[in-house]
Amino acid sequence: MGQYFHSVTLDREKCRGCTNCIKRCPTEAIRVREGKARIFEERCVDCGECIRACPNHAKSALTDKLERLADFAYTVALPAPAFYGQFRRTSTPEAVLRTLQGVGFDDVFEVSVAASAAAYAIRAYMSRETYARPLISSACPAVVRLIQVRFPSLLDHIIPIESPMEVAAAQARALAVAATGLPEEKIGLFFITPCAAKVTAVKQPVGRTTSRVNGVVSMSDVYGLAVKRLKDNPVGQSRQLATASGIRWGRAGGENAEISQGEMLAVDGIHNVITVLTEVEKGRLTDVDYLEAQACVGGCIGGPLVPENPFVARANIKAMADAVGDRALPFGPGELEAMYGAGHFLMEKAIPPRPVLQLDDDVPRAMAKVELLESTVALLPNLDCGSCGSPSCRALAEDIVRGLAFETDCIFKLRERVRDLAAEMKELAEKVPPSMERPAIEPKSGE
Known about the structure:
Elements: E1 8-10, H1 20-24, E2 30-33, E3 36-39, H2 49-53, E4 59-61, E5 74-79, H3 93-103, E6 107-108, H4 111-128, E7 135-136, H5 141-150, H6 164-180, E8 187-193, H7 197-203, E9 215-218, H8 219-231, H9 244-247, H10 254-259, E10 264-268, H11 270-281, E11 290-294, H12 310-324, H13 333-341, H14 363-379, H15 393-401, H16 411-429
Parallel strand pairs: 5-6, 5-8, 7-11, 8-9, 10-11
Antiparallel strand pairs: 1-4, 2-3
């Protein structure tokens, strides 16, 4: 079993064992044992659903603090498109970006710019390559990891184009080296993230060996400082280069709107994504060319690390995009074509599956355990109540087969055992050894 980094962490001291998280986890990665939650690392995709579900704030995201900026001679902020959605419509995109320089960054490069570049690469790939339909977006790392865990047969459907975050990092580093003359290792690139999954995508990337990004800062951590800076009316050179369509990547449907090629489908919310991926796995969506899938409801503006209400943020994104309007990107089609031809947009390596459902290394023993699992499921009530600390009766059966739980962890099976034991105790209490005198049987009334 491989070692996995996870940005979603559990504080056992805060956990009350309420089982809210086990019902929301899309990969059944959480169990409650001895009154505390436990996360199965091999199953976790860092989607952040447990962060939303936990009323005791026992789940949190492990992100970098702004103090890490001191590790580099020159730092560049990479704000996600959703960052614009955190500011009211009276703000301007230029002012929003200038706040990041006031927070402590030396420069800013919008991931929205790289999103437009990635859209060009996606259109080029769809026009020139043969692929399994539908292609699935690689922009959301939680969805990519979900496919690794639950839908490994669909890995070939993921388009091998880098996420806008990685594309932005490559462009930002090249510009920073040219502007400062510093070596690459002296330049720190920090992504401003709306979700925990992006942290994992940097610390343990898929599709490449190492990430181009040096650190990931929570959008909530930056927001308070940025708002204060915005109230001070920051002045300075405008760093705003993104187009309206690039900014719209911050909400669901924005990616498809910019690609705008072939038959397209957009789905947001990880449980909705699972439903659609199940349809893809069954071969029912072969008429769709491209699938935009995002783990958070509403897209990145609905991430667990954003401070603004997602519905308000959606309106803010629209206002920001309208304020920018249609404009030319800072690089032309010729430059984009040269980058695509040189392979700058392509992932370095294939995305592997994550074998999380293997019951045993030995095939005959694994088959025997599958039979035992099925027979155990048949004995359980199949009510999926979660009282046992597992998210479903089938998950409990799997835990039993793996030696991680007992049949009596099910409250209904425990009640049956207690009832049978009580009946047996009553029967035993009425028996006496043969050497002892049996009590006289009282005649029944009326006899």
